[in-house]
Write a structure and sequence with these properties.
disordered N terminus; 12 helices; eleven-stranded mixed sheet; about 25% helix; alpha/beta
Length: about 575
């Protein structure tokens, strides 16, 4: 008995001796704090101990008591731009010094692969050698959030590169748009700039939105109900998913027997290394459509078949003659991976809430193409969600999707155009702005390499809206439409220029929904007249309304007119 008591006492003493100050992973050497703001430092220390915090910009000691679990938080008023500074956090048992801290402008950059697209990493930005070789600026600081998922809001992130780092050639496996944006702000403002890269390719907006703010968005009732009924517990959610999938698969097998597709599909649809060879790269993370036509011999008609798809990463939907077993109920959403509602917000955004930011840059939408009506509500909910998280109406600037897929002159049913239109509806929220990348796309590459122009347009927007520069960042917008016989007259709020004599990109439609390519004439610098000999009674006009459109209208300062539709 005496021996057992002695061992327990030794163990307890050892735990106490090892207690030390621990800070969140986003508070490290080389960090940037948002100037003239209030930053809350949270962490763990010895249970019940007094924790002292000294910030180098004022050398004033602040004291707070850790609770019974060792948790503490204390708020710091940050200074005007400057540094480097140190922040010292100490209790009776240990001390942590956070060094080389700068005060300046801090922006959060998030979204899917086109925001994740690095200067030099799984792929390379245009002119990557020059960008990398000139990336030597200690006033630009980078924080890259590690890809993680969670079913409940987390208190801390995980990071790459050990936390905050200075911009340098060896730290350029980092969002190109974020870095190039920071560089332009630094060059213009002459103050330190920090950017946070919290991105994940191929992910939908619902994964970046919290449980509470998804409740008002139609279409996610099943997933939200499952999370709530399972207490947001991963193991219980997995059990629930496997049970629901078992039921669904039985229905799918019955459905397959009823459809009775042919059984003569042989050979690979695509070779194993196809995507790497056409330029997607080994790190490609996204969505790809693959189509193969097969001929079923007459003697095999009506016989059962087995379709072997091989390994799928992460999941697929298979259609036969355009039908995806539509008689079945909705397939249960997989809880694995990065697309499940809320999981990226919980793990990669919510933990940053105590770090004040100037604003957000967002580039996402490809993963929601085909759900434009839902996205209109979803995207607004996401913006409101993030602002609620930070309790701030900070600027939220987003990139409208670039052109992709085969060019079309007339494509009124384009799902990519519909998603771009849904993105633009977020401009109804205050303190938002949209940068169009419609003219920067590549029909054969969903990841256009010209991120410099995207970053430049975002920087012009922020410099003009938030920092008082005269940057001419706005594109002309259509402000009125008038029907005049077989013509439609559009008026814009600023002067237009076209890159050729012919004005391209317009289609014109009638009340029956029939569209044709429009002939456009510039009546004056702000007025266009449009008509088509095939549309006798036009009622609406759309511009750059296609997967990969060919519009050529710009402002006098080179900003493209964004896609729009007078009937949408």
């Amino acid at each position: 008995m005496d021996k057992l008591i002695l061992l327990l006492l030794i163990s307890t003493a050892f735990v106490v001796a090892q207690a030390k100050v621990v800070l969140p992973n986003y508070i490290t050497d080389n960090m940037v704090v948002q100037r003239n703001s209030v930053m809350k430092i949270t962490g763990h220390a010895s249970s019940g101990s007094k924790v002292n915090v000294i910030a180098g910009w004022d050398s004033r000691s602040r004291e707070v008591k850790a609770d019974s679990e060792g948790k503490f938080d204390i708020s710091l008023d940050t200074p005007d731009a400057g540094g480097p500074y140190s922040i010292i956090i100490a209790d009776k048992d240990s001390k942590v010094k956070v060094g080389n801290v700068l005060s300046g402008e801090l922006w959060l950059c998030s979204g899917q692969s086109n925001m994740e697209f690095p200067v030099d990493g799984w792929t390379s930005v245009m002119d990557a050698d020059h960008v990398v070789s000139t990336a030597r600026n200690p006033d630009i600081r980078l924080l890259q959030v590690k890809k993680r998922v969670a079913f409940s809001p987390q208190d801390d992130i995980e990071t790459n590169m050990g936390g905050w780092v200075e911009a340098a050639p060896n730290t350029m496996d980092f969002s190109a748009i974020a870095y190039l944006y920071a560089k332009e702000l630094r060059d213009s403002l002459k103050v330190p700039v920090g950017v946070i890269d919290a991105t994940w390719g191929g992910t939908p907006a619902e994964a970046w939105t919290s449980y509470g703010f998804l409740k008002g968005v139609p279409g996610f009732e099943g997933e939200l109900s499952a999370m709530e009924s399972c207490g947001f517990d991963t193991s219980r959610l997995r059990e629930n998913y496997e049970k629901e999938m078992g039921v669904w698969m039985k229905l799918a097998q019955k459905g397959g027997e009823e459809i009775r597709p042919g059984d003569k599909l042989t050979g690979n649809v695509l070779p194993a290394d196809y995507f790497e060879r056409i330029g997607f790269g080994n790190g490609f993370d996204g969505i790809v459509w693959v189509q193969k036509e097969i001929d079923v011999p007459a003697e095999d008609a009506g016989k059962p078949m087995t379709l072997k798809l091989g390994a799928i990463d992460d999941e697929d939907v298979t259609y036969l003659n355009g039908v995806d077993f539509s008689s079945l109920p909705k397939k249960p959403a997989s809880i694995e991976g990065s697309s499940y509602p809320t999981v990226l917000y919980n793990a990669m955004i919510h933990p940053l809430r105590n770090l004040p930011i100037k604003g957000v840059l967002w580039y996402q939408g490809c993963a929601n193409v085909g759900r434009a009506e839902q996205y209109e509500t979803l995207f607004k909910s996401l913006i409101n969600n993030w602002r609620d998280t930070w309790d701030s109406e900070f600027p939220f600037y987003f990139v409208q999707l670039a052109g992709w897929l085969a060019p079309h002159s007339v494509q009124p049913d384009s799902e990519w155009a519909a998603l771009r239109n849904a993105q633009s509806k977020a401009l109804q929220l205050p303190n938002t702005a949209m940068v169009s990348a419609i003219d920067l796309g590549n029909p054969g590459d969903i990841h256009p390499r010209d991120k410099q122009t995207v970053a430049h347009r975002l920087a012009l927007t922020a410099l003009g809206r938030d920092y008082g520069f005269d940057t001419n960042y706005k594109a002309p917008q259509c402000i009125s439409m008038q029907k005049m016989g077989n013509k439609i007259v559009l008026k814009f709020d600023d002067d237009l220029t076209a890159t050729s004599v012919a004005i391209l990109g317009f289609i014109i439609g009638d009340a029956d929904g029939d569209f044709d390519q429009a002939v456009a004439r510039m009546a004056d610098s702000r007025t266009l007249e449009l008509y088509s000999p095939l549309v006798k009674k036009p009622v609406c006009v759309r511009y750059d309304w296609a997967d990969f459109p060919n519009g050529n209208l710009y402002s006098r300062h080179g900003i493209p007119v964004a896609p729009f539709a007078t009937d949408k």
